[in-house]
Amino acid sequence: MIGERWALIVLRELLLGPRRFSDLRADIPGISANVLTQRLAELEERGLVRRTRLPPPAAREVYEATAWGLEAEPVIQALGRWAARSPRHDPTLPLSAVSILMSFRTMINEQRAKGADLRIGFRFGAETFTARVKKGRIKVARGPMDDCDGIITAKPTELAGVVYGGAPLELLGTEGNEAAIRRFVTLFTLPPKVETPSVAS
């Protein structure tokens, strides 16, 4: 269903809402227009993705995950958590906005998030999202950043460096309640690295 090269990544990029073809290509480094067209057509044929048109004033064609396609999120999360245990995992590699926000949905530490009630907005270039943390869980939605405790403006890799790499918060653009933002960035933990057997000389 999603075993061809790029198929899983294309579907992942649609988990937080509809995307234009050009946006998908920009956020998936290394994929050609022809291959992206082919993967989208295959995913559409299999019932995981559909083409639709946004209402005016946007009035543009976009791709979105179907309800069944969205059911793949736990699978993608499990793969992400599994892969992050690799000693070679590098959180500084290029990330899309969807990638970093999906990682938050995967890596939230329910104990740390216990009792937190936060709304944090994210601005990645022209894209905006809002994350809501409540009852140890996190929900993320693409769209206007309304009634947020704080807003973070950054590149996804910069945000990953602060959340997972211990870089200072001051590297990010922030506005609003700084205490809320500082708490938010402490709520996520990567799983422990796997111990790989040493190679005999």
First CA to last CA: what distance?
A: 42 Å
Mean pLDDT: 93
**Main β-sheet description:** 5 strands, mixed
Which segments are poorly predicted (pLDDT under 50) over 5 or more consecutive residues?
Answer: none
Strand content: 15-25%
Q: DSSP helix count?
A: 9
Task: Supply database-style keywords.
alpha+beta, 20% strand, 5-stranded mixed β-sheet, globular, single chain, two-stranded antiparallel ribbon, 201 residues, 7 strands
Folded structure, characterized:
- This protein has 201 residues and is of the alpha+beta class.
- It has helices at residues 7-12, 21-27, 33-45, 67-70, 73-83, 97-107, 110-113, 156-165, 178-184, and strands at 49-53, 61-65, 117-124, 127-134, 137-142, 150-153, 173-176.
- The protein has a 5-stranded mixed β-sheet with strand order 5-4-3-6-7, covered by helices on one side. Strands 1-2 form a two-stranded antiparallel ribbon.
- A hairpin with a 2-residue loop joins strand 4 and strand 5.
- Helix 5 (73-83) packs across helix 6 (97-107).
Short summary of the structure?
It is built from nine helices and seven strands, in the order H-H-H-E-E-H-H-H-H-E-E-E-E-H-E-H.
List the helices and strands and how they pair.
Blueprint: H1 7-12, H2 21-27, H3 33-45, E1 49-53, E2 61-65, H4 67-70, H5 73-83, H6 97-107, H7 110-113, E3 117-124, E4 127-134, E5 137-142, E6 150-153, H8 156-165, E7 173-176, H9 178-184
Parallel strand pairs: 3-6
Antiparallel strand pairs: 1-2, 3-4, 4-5, 6-7
Helix pairs in contact: 5-6
